[in-house]
From TrEMBL:
PANTHER family: PROTEIN LINES HOMOLOG 1, WINS1, 2 PROTEIN. Residues 1-22, 351-379 are annotated as: Disordered. It comes from Cherax quadricarinatus (Australian red claw crayfish). Residues 353-365 have a biased composition (Polar residues). This is Protein lines. It comes from the Eukaryota. Residues 214-552 form the Protein Lines N-terminal domain. Residues 559-595 form the Protein Lines C-terminal domain. InterPro entries: Lines_C, LINES_N, Protein_Lines. Residues 366-377 have a biased composition (Low complexity).
Amino acid sequence: MVEPQQKRVKLPPSGDDSGGQLLPRRDLEIIHAQLIRKCLCSLQLPDILHTLSVCNDCFSVHPVAHMLRLRDETLLYISMLTLFFEVSLRQQSRGVLCSRISEVVAAGADNEGAVLDILFGFVASEDKYVSYSASRALSSLLLMLRGRASELVLEKLVENLAVSVNLIEVGHSIEVVRRVIEWKDLDEHPLEGTESDSGQPLECAKITLTPADTQGANEVKYVATKKLDCKWFLLVARLTQLVNEFTMEREHVIVSFLTLWESLISVKANLSVTDTKEFYSGLERLMTPLTRHTHTVVWRKVLDLYNEVLCYGSTLALQDVLAEEPCNLAHLLIRAVKDRRFLECVPCGGSAGNRSQSNQSPTLDSSAGPSSGTASGMDQGDRTILHKVVLVVLKAIAVTVKETRCDSSSENSSRSGGSGSEDVDMAIIERSLREVVRKVDDFVKSKLPYHPEAPMAEWMVRLFADQDDWLVESMVCGLDIFTGLGIRIRQQPELHACVNPHTTFLEFLETIYLEHDVLLDLLVSNETSFLLYLLRYLKFIRRSWREFASHCGRRLEEVMTVLIRLRFAIDRLVSKNLFPYNINPVLKLLQKCEELYEVGEH
């Protein structure tokens, strides 16, 4: 191979290391510094391999406990390995690799077993910093392995999860698997510039990889799901036991496992439905340990998991037929709220307190803004749990209504006749949901100083006002619940008022101070499901214009002014070809609502 024309950095002999230490610290520092530049071309291949060989021999011959006397050198070695694997992995995913790094990878392939043994030994170390650092290195190395080697590593990791008594080892083994599951081919660091910018120095000798050489990490993700699948029942059983016997020493294991579980079922992991189906089993086993005595950390992570399963705004709301697993969880939550006093067990302190003050306002007491928790004796952690539990119950209601409508429609479409079956189903659902909505309403008003007569459609905007994605998702849920219940909801004035989407929209506009620019920002952003909400709500306005106009009353002019200004702002962006997607369906609906307003149909 033709070497690049440049002055090479010569590694000093390892025997010159001061203090007679076993590890060549200065050599490691030089390699580390070059890896930060994402290129090793300035170093001689034999020198790099010699340094790595000396380190590997030291850690293979001497017990880990003995080597931890050289803790700084050990951490430097692990850090160098982590950086090497991460730089190599990122360059492989882009298809352009430093030639010297490629040579080191090829030369070290025969010795990867020894490196893996060393890293597994460090993961089991009682030193938390060494164990954590080794887990980072191991996850990056694992993503580079292929075939049987990756299978063996994942089998050992999953075995650690199932049977190891070393909680540090268990927790960090979980983190290794989670990083593999969450890894993305083009996951950019904000300081690395654009995707096309590799960040390598100009003098770096690069080689171009074939497309087949850049896809290996996805294979490892697939193998990881299969290995977890095989032992999933045992893993959930162990997690349940740890939760039931919670101690602070076990907290990091519980949190890590629940985070892994959330990643496995998240759409962001880019795993197929078939690959993740098994991981929906066991969700019900986490409900039993949730009592008023359960630690708040467990509550938060379980609620995160349940909210991910019931990912309504970006997933379930868009599906014509819902899968069985999220529906089962929704039913479980509704039964827990309705019959098991689930909300009474939620560990969020505080109470509504001074009702006489809150009675002066139809919404939130003026001293408590959207993100204030101290006004009711509730800290930010308690308020977060309150947000999560209210949101997951709203999602459960929306999923149940949508499932019932889908099932009834399927039955009626397969036979002639009326919608009697649907009426019976919806009557049963409506009675249960009315009770659940009442309990959620009472629960929130017992914690925060909302006016006793404020409907849920109003206070949920105030509740989620400081979290855009939760706010929009709750609004989608409320709209779908109202439209899903159909004509039946109009026969129940109390339930009608609780989830009336017109009340929600007016309160939302009040919260954003009638600024159409905020609506535009939400439409352009990909962080919420506001496009879905606005599209469905505008269709709802078009179908029930008179009801909308009547509900707005004297505020109709200012509401329509916001919508008309929004249409103008969208038109300007579209005319300059600056809107990031096809917004025409929303534009047409805005124009239709404007026409209804101008002809005076109100």
